[in-house]
What does this fold into?
Amino acid sequence: MNNEEMNGSLAVNGKDYRIVRLLGKGKGGYSYLAESDGQTAVVKQIHHEPCDYYSFGNKIEAELGDYERLQKAGIRIPGMHAVDRDAERIVKDYIEGPTVMELVQAGATAEPYLPQVREMAAKAMAAGLNIDYYPTNFIVHDGLLWYVDYECNDYSEQWDFEHWGIQYWR
It folds into this structure.
């Protein structure tokens, strides 16, 4: 954690966001629930920690490119509101609700959301993409499934929902 994070705030393009709590850590960064001007948002801080099974180029540019690719594909994702390239931070909508992983860990089934994730998978495949189907990347809000990560890669059958992702949804 850097000094800003330890002090409980992060600046994005000069605007301060008070950190409420850590939402999660992924391959590319830390995501925080944050507040500014009475509004909640997610502030993602890119990190450069090594990842044994994934190689990255420019992470902030990858996030921006992936966001555009997912939007064009019609995948339900949170809106992006600000990018601070120098600080490697992104501000995006906060989608309130449990992750699919949290639901399954609490004893619920992911079955009601399989049609929605399969619809996303079909849209991704039609756009030549795979998304990261791990259930921590999906939030249920008002019955709708949201893909809250922006990661996507070129399509490969090996990594599509039916060949890889489904194993984590059962």
Summary: The two ends are 35 Å apart (CA to CA).
